[in-house]
Input
Amino acid sequence: MTPHTHTPTPNASASASAPVPVPVAGERELVPVGVTQRTLPPTATGERRYALDSRWFPFLAACRLAPVPLPNQPHQALAAARALGLRGLLLTGGDSLAPYGGTTPDRDATEEHLLAWALAGRIPVLGVCRGMQVLMHFFGARLTPVDGHVATRHTLTPNTPGGGGPAAARTVNSYHALAARHVPAPLEATARCGDVIEAVRHTSAPLEGIMWHPEREPVPDPRDIQQVTRLMAGKAAQR
Output
């Protein structure tokens, strides 16, 4: 008696277990943006690590952005930005600049190179807290110590005609011990808290800075999402 053998249908199991992805209706392309990071002190074993607040990822996802963390090594960071075709740059918070007592000159140099690259190519730039201080320092502003701006909340006063837009009167968080009180051209102030400048924008380039941390809000503020989305989409307000 000849044993019964079963010949499986080619690719039957593969067809059943590998569904074809279906595009989501209305799904929009994510915009890839470079994100700078902190430099941490060396570990006991001599490792040098970078760090980024994990809260940035859901906030940037809400802005339809795909974050690409960059190393604090100027040439490698620039090479990655060019190779990956990054369409925006986010200068994040943390660490003081070296001229003001900071201990991460590698980060200072990286962000300066990335900022120059972005300006030359009209790549949108957002500076947050330290990131805004990088913008101010780059254009020649002087930072001075400020009291009452660490781990608190305060109200912004708009510095734009009509007081509208993302920098309209509102309460924001604050985590900075240094501040600028005067804005050098080509920057202009868009919000203040007393005499402290809390937000700036470039008069002709897609570049903005804010001193508060949108990623640290328990629920992202729609005004922050609107500002970041507009800027990174290349739709900075005409001035």
Notes: Helices lie at 12-17, 56-62, 74-83, 105-121, 130-138, 222-232. Confidence is low (pLDDT under 50) at residues 12-16, 22-26. The longest strand covers residues 187-193. The chain is about 25% helix and 25% strand.
